[in-house]
Amino acid sequence: MNAATDPPSTHRDGAAGRAADVPVTGPHGHGPQPDEDPLDARVGPFHDTAGVARLLGVPETEVQTRREEHTLLAVPTSDGVWVYPAWQFNDREVIEALLPALRALREVDPWARAMWFVMANPDLDGTTPLEWLDGDGSAEVVVFSARRTAHEWVPDPMGEDLP
What we know:
Blueprint: E1 10-12, E2 19-21, H1 38-43, E3 46-48, H2 49-56, H3 60-68, E4 75-76, E5 82-85, E6 89-90, E7 93-94, H4 99-104, H5 110-118, H6 129-134, H7 139-153
Antiparallel strand pairs: 1-2, 3-5, 4-5, 6-7
Helix pairs in contact: 2-3
C-alpha cells in the first residue's frame, strides 16, 4: 500500500460509531484492532463512500448507485454512515465473482449479508465464500449457496414456501 497514492480506508469503531483511519493491507484486510467490535473485526476493515469513490475512480453518487443496485456491499454504522468492506475490492475494482452472490442476497440484512461472506459455509466444504472463491472454487456453487441462504433467511411475504 502506498500512503501517498492509495485512498485511506475508514473503519467504524463498534463501541462509539466513530470513524478512524485503518490501513488495508490485502484483499481480506487484517486482524482486529484493540477496541474493535467483534462484528467489525470479522467483516472489516472498511472504506467510507469517499474512499471507495477514489478507489474506483468514480463520483460518490456512483458509489451510492452501485450500493443500491447491489453491485457493492455496504453496511450501515451505528450513526447511519455506509461503509464498505475492503475485502470486496481487488486492486481498483470490485471482485467480479462476488457480484452474483451479492445480487442473490439483496433482500438479506446488510450486516447479515456481509457476515455470510466471511462465515464458514457447509455448502462450501466448511470454507467461507471468500476463501472458496480465492481458492478457485466454482462461483456457481457460491451463488447456489447464496440463493439458498436468502430463501432461508428472508421470509416469503406471501407466507408461502417456494418449491
